[in-house]
Amino acid sequence: MEHTISITSQAERKVTDTKSLPFGKIPTEHMFIAEYKNGQWQNAQVVPFHDLTLSPLALCLHYGQTVFEGMKAFVMEDGRINIFRMDKHYDRFTKSLFRMCMPAVPQKLFNDAIHKLVKLDADWVPREDDGSLYIRTFMIATEDRIGVKISDEYLFMVVCSPAFQYYAQPLRVKIETNFVRAAEGGTGTAKCGGNYGGAFYPTQLAREAGYDQVLWTDSIHNEFIEESGTMNAMFFIDNTLITPMLSGTILDGVTRDSLLAIAREKGMNVEERQISYEELIRAFEAGKRVEAFGAGTAAVVAPIEVIAIGHKEYKCYIEPDAMMYQLQKDLLNIRTGLAPDTHKWNFII
Ligand SMILES: Cc1ncc(COP(=O)(O)O)c(C=O)c1O
Hints:
Layout: E1 6-7, E2 30-37, E3 40-48, H1 60-63, E4 66-75, E5 81-84, H2 86-99, H3 107-120, E6 132-141, E7 154-163, E8 171-176, H4 193-197, H5 200-208, E9 213-216, E10 227-228, E11 231-237, E12 240-243, H6 254-265, E13 269-272, H7 277-285, E14 290-296, E15 300-309, E16 312-315, H8 323-336, E17 346-348
Parallel strand pairs: 1-3, 8-9, 8-15, 12-13
Antiparallel strand pairs: 2-3, 2-7, 4-5, 4-6, 5-17, 6-7, 10-11, 11-12, 11-14, 14-15, 15-16
Helix pairs in contact: 6-8
The structure holds pyridoxal-5'-phosphate.
């Protein structure tokens, strides 16, 4: 079914100096919203950014039927705007929605919503080298009923916010062996709100102990590394790029997938497999060069400087010639049009 998206524009708020603000603090001028009722998507609109009115009985407020995606738009070298890997974000959004018993959004509606919104708010896409427009698509259950049930009504929305460097400094992370983020058969591969709510407490404890993030381990042995915060975990040990395979408990990261493809094309050794913290200890203690980094849309490549395992801290290699920076640069070059987009990752508006 074709969906017409109506646009109500209003040039009230001007682009402000957003660089000094924390990530995601300032929304752009407009947003997209569509309603799901009676088994259909309807009232698709791009409208001035505004607050929502929700019943206190709205099911999303009680039972966690919320799913989101995060992607980015970049200004390319030639001034055009590129939305990176919209298709892969759509696929993951659809899988997350399925896992949470929420209705799919037709791909054309998803693409058109983002396209129209980013085009209208194009002045908000930062022109600076380290800037991008973060695009948040999300869905919430809105049926008003207090009983536990799958909602029959939803809102699908898109909002945007200018984004700059996510972490100012290399990270200090702690291997987490008490708390788990996800277990097999759970919702670890879905980008649903509950996964993040459950991660706050252990992350807060890690912050109090002087770390930026935790590196989650598996729920059975508390030994194999999973991922970190909003990033997939990646390592270079002896020039081999190692990252946990998609086991069903970690997110299928778009940045992870992109960096793996780039690394393989560069002829690097790539291994998607289990990696235990014991293996890391052995590598550190053998004096091997260990690079560790988080890969995610918000932070792109976030170098890890220190990994705490038990009571011991290990130092990773973060010098400018580290291999992770080569991957980061190659990815940026594709996004900005400096390198050919052989995979058709760029959606240019
Ligand atoms: C839990 C988690 N893992 C990994 C990632 C990285 O995924 P992506 O590269 O698609 O942003 C994210 C961010 O979306 C995340 O929230």
